[in-house]
Amino acid sequence: MTAGAEDDGPAIQVAVERLQQLFHTLDPFPFNERDLDEGVEAYIVDWARELPRELPLRIVVHVPPEEAGTDTARGLEAALQHFFAYRSHVIGRDIKELFRTGRMALSVGLVALGLCLALGNLVAGRIGSEYLGRFIEEGLIIVGWVANWRPIEIFLYDWWPLARRRNLYTRLGAASVIVKPTPRRSR
Predict the structure, then answer these.
(1) Residues with Cβ < 8 Å from 69, sequence gap 6 or more?
(2) CA atoms within 13 Å, Cβ hemisphere of 126
C-alpha cells in the first residue's frame, strides 16, 4: 500500500491482490456494510492525516484486472463511504457522551467547590489560631478546585482529538474511490 499523487492531486493509494483483503474477514454483514480490516483502516486514516485538509480526499485502489470489473469493485466506493461515515457518526456520539460526562462532573465539582468554600469559611471562623484556620480554609479551597479538574479538562482539551478524528472520518466518508486495474507482473 502506498500513498501519493495522481493526476487530480494527492490520493491515498492502496494495492491489493483481492478486494476482499480490504475488509474484516469474519464480518458476517453484506459487502457494502462490512468493517474495514484494522490494518487497512489505520493505513488509510494515517495517510489521510498527511494530506491537505482543504482538498477533497481520493482513494485509489489498485487491483488485478480480473477484480476491477466485478460487482465488488463497483460497490467499493459505497462500501468505503458507508464505513467511514458510520465511524464518523460513532465518534460524534462519543463526543456527545464525553460532554454529558463533563456536565455531570461539572455539577459535582461545583457542588464540591461550594461546600469546600462554605466549610472553609466556617472552620476558619471557629478556630482560634489564625494560621491553622487559614491553613484549613486554603486546603479546602484547593480540594474544591481539584474537584473541578476533570470537567475543566473535558471542556477545554479532551474533545479536540475526538472532533479532529470525527472530521477526518467525515472527509473519508465523502472521499471518491477509484478502482484501477494493475498490470500483471511477468515472472
Answers:
(1) none
(2) 8
The three cell numbers of residue 176 are 471518491
C-alpha span between 50 and 57 (Å, rounded):
11
Pairing of strands 9-15, 2-6: antiparallel
113/107 Cα distance (integer angstroms):
10
81: nearest Cα among 32, 39, 138, 154: 32
C-alpha distances (whole Å) from 86 to each of 18, 35, 91, 172 are 24, 10, 9, 11
DSSP conformational letter for 57: P
What are the mean pLDDT values of the chain's consecutive 10-residue runs (187 residues total)?
55 91 70 79 95 92 90 90 95 98 97 95 82 90 96 96 97 94 69
**What is the gyration radius of the CA atoms in the chain, in angstroms?**
27
